[in-house]
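fyi for ur records
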Amino acid sequence: MNTQVGPASPSAQGSAPLRDKVAIVTGGASGLGRATALALAAAGAEVVVADLDAEGGREVADIVGGHFRACDVSDLDANRALVDFAVERCGGVDIAFLNAGVATGCGVGDDFDLARYRRAMGANLDGVVFGTHAVLPALRARGGGSIVATASLAGLASVPLDPLYGANKHAVVGLARSLGPALAPDGIRFNAVCPGFAESRIIDPLRGMLSEHGTPVILAEVVADTVLRIVTGDGAGECWLIQAGRDPEPFRFRNVPAPGRPAYS
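which gave:
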C-alpha cells in the first residue's frame, strides 16, 4: 500500500471566508474535484459540481448542499451552458476550479491514437481554455473573482512515459503564467495547481508501480486545501507545486530569459 501524505491544517477551518461566494468545480465527481468541492463548501461557498459522471456528481452535490450539472468540458457550448446554469441557480459565479482531466493513453509513435489524443487535449487543455472563456463574463459581472486550473507536476518537468500528457499540462502552466498578469487588472486572479501523484482516477493504472517503488500518493485533501489557499489569497499567475514531503508553494521559475533580463545569472 502506498504511503499517503495527509493534508496541512485547513486554512479555512472554523471559519467561512467564502460565505456568499459561488464556485464551479469541473471534474467534481471524484478525486481532486470532489475533495475541493467539499473544502469550498466547508469554507462557505455555494458549489456547482460539474462532471460527465452524473451519479458521482449528484452525490457530491448532495453532500455539499450544492448543484450538479452534466458537462463535457471539451465542448465550448457545454461550458457556456454550465456558467449560465450557475448564474441562474446561484445568482453569479465568483470561483472556477477548472479541474476535469484524463490520462492520455497513447504516444506520438506507433502507439499514436488520434481519438485518444483529441480526448486528452479536449479535457486537459480545451477544458481550461473553454472554461475560462465561458466564465470570464460572469466573474466580471461580480467585479472579479478567482480561476484555478489543475495542471500537474507533469507541467513543470519532462514526462518521457507520457509526452502528450506533459504537453497539455505544460500548456496549462503557460496559460496560467500568461493569463495571471493579463486578467489581474480586471480583479480576476488566474492560478494553477501542479500536484505530483495525487489521489485520483488518473493514477489508477499506476498504483502498482507507485507501490513497488514506494512513491507516496498525495491525498486529494492536500490539493483541495491548496486551492482554498489560492482562492482566499491574492496571488496571480502562480503555479503551486504540490509534492510529497514539502509544503505546497508557488513554483519559482528562475533564470527564464526575457526582454531586459539576462538569460542566466
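The beta strands are 4-5, 22-26, 46-51, 67-70, 95-98, 145-150, 188-195, 217-218, 239-242, 249-250. thats all i got for now
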